[in-house]
Amino acid sequence: MIRLNVILLTCLLSILSAVNAEERMISKAELTDRVLGFWNGQLLGNYIGFPFENLYSEDAIPVLVERIYTADYEGEVQLKINNNDRRGHIPILARSLGGAFSDDDTDIEFVTLHAVEKYGLGITYPEITEAWKTHINDFIWVANREARNLMDQGFVAPDTGRKENNKHWFQIDPQLVNEIWSAFYPGMIEQATERALWGARITNDDWGTHPTMAYAAMISAAFFEDDIEELVKLAVDAVPNTGPFAEGIRDVIRWHEQHDDWRITRQLIHDKYWAYKSTELEAPVSIVSSLNNGLTGIMALLYGEGEYTKTVGIATSAGYDSDNQAATLGGLIGAMRGMTGLNADVVTRMKTLDASWEWEEPFNDTYVNISRDEIALRTPITEIAARIVVIAEQAIRDNGGRMIHKNGEIFYVINSDI
């Protein structure tokens, strides 16, 4: 009798899910274009924010940074810049390598892509732990670094992200390494959010996973939705209504309504969430906390109004771990607009990085892996997008969607919950 009741309940939930779902149709060509926008958008955002990573906390950057800034610009406001390593010399390294170079804003997603290709969308924690141990050894920090150290001690995810094991459980790490789940599940918010949360628990716990859920929902929806305020509402719905991040999103929405100047809202975020305290908890203070960083990303999205350069510029200029918000939001706007919908100047910046030379294709259609072990050194970015689309097609089928042919084109009919 109990088994019969469980079966009946499962059937009922499936029926209710189907009733609440809406079919969305997108051509394979358009989905591929949007995935390309997602990947290239992350790359450019990463590089715009990279020179200022972790240099501004008490105050925002005094100018709006809308392009890649290097140490050799003259006649500009003197800014703090990471000019002692590759972060301050991005065009030189990219030109020398012949393409976009890997960083943790994209390269752990690249590992996830390989792992899902190997094990499938139902990849398990022991399998992703093995993938991390094989491919991810250097060029990782805070929660990612701690999780990887724990793996060497015999821990398996999600134990690697639990509060009692990972002292960095509240940091930004999962927000910047799990966006790819939204590309695997375009327009399927619930699935994208669930799998991004699954990924977040490799390194984080409790409200430290909430920004990841918010951005997963928004990026998945952005494949079909271009109303920024609607996207932020979806983020509110995706996050558990407990903890400081849920409170913070509502604060940012209200402050955005009250103030035209994003710098005022940024200061309000800093005043309350840099050292957040309530009767229930006291949030750790960190320049790479998921709390203040995640909230400045929401701020940048609202004030950026769907425009790539403005959104990424605000995300960068807000400071903190600035390249991460810039990369995540660059990917979101890229998914929303697609490569063909991005402004021409944005695409040009993907081809030039500075004014002294130009590639024929964005980032020379080349992703150069300089950080992850036992993965190809050079991969065409168009190939990465095509591989993501293959997985997305499987996810669409797995979740009640289908593929059809119409006027000589392939279309996907997605069982969407937008």
Write the layout of secondary structure elements.
Elements: H1 2-20, E1 22-27, H2 28-49, H3 90-97, E2 100-101, H4 107-119, H5 125-135, H6 142-152, H7 180-184, H8 189-200, H9 210-222, H10 228-238, H11 244-258, H12 262-273, H13 290-304, H14 308-317, H15 322-341, H16 344-352, E3 367-368, E4 378-379, H17 381-398, E5 402-406, E6 409-416
Parallel strand pairs: 2-3
Antiparallel strand pairs: 1-6, 3-4, 5-6
Can you tell me about this structure?
- The structure is a single chain.
- Helices cover 54% and strands 6% of the residues.
- β5 and β6 (409-416) form a beta hairpin.
- It has a 3-stranded antiparallel beta sheet.
- It is globular.
- It has a single domain (23-416), classed as ADP-ribosylation/Crystallin J1 (ADP-ribosylglycohydrolase fold).
- α8 runs antiparallel to α9, α9 (210-222) crosses α10 and α9 runs parallel beside α15.
- It has 418 residues and is mainly alpha-helical.
Please give the alpha-carbon distance between the first and last residues: 36 Å
Number of strands: 6
Secondary structure: helix percent:
40-55%
The main sheet comes to: 3 strands, antiparallel
Strand content: 5-15%
Shape: globular
Average residue-wise pLDDT = 94
**What name goes with the CATH superfamily?**
ADP-ribosylation/Crystallin J1
Summary, kept brief:
With about 425 residues, this protein is mainly alpha-helical.
Keywords:
single chain; mainly alpha; globular; ADP-ribosylglycohydrolase fold; 418 residues
